[in-house]
Design goal:
Blueprint lengths: L1 H10 L25 H10 L7 E4 L2 H10 L2 E5 L11 E5 L2 H12 L1
Parallel strand pairs: 1-2, 2-3
Amino acid sequence: SRNRITTFLERIGISHLFDDELIFGSDDVPYAKPNPVVIDMIREKTKLKVNEMILIGDTQNDLQLAINAKLNFGQFDGSMFVSDYEGFIFHFNDWHIVRRAFQSLIG
């Protein structure tokens, strides 16, 4: 749900980097992951192209969503390894890395 997502973003210290209008929980979309409709909704609101986006995830559904939406994918955790996916760009196991990466993007 949206509440779970915002709580998580607050816990890792990056909630201020996200626009509330662009946080979609399962109750906000007509189809669940890995259907790419949520990516289409984000692209419509932001006018971003897929090559300007990255999906960070930790489940097979997240990976499949990235594949279906043709997004680059960053894998969190070591439970799956997807180096054979053409859009795979990094693997990490520490949310502090994500926080630093987001903060470096906005200056």
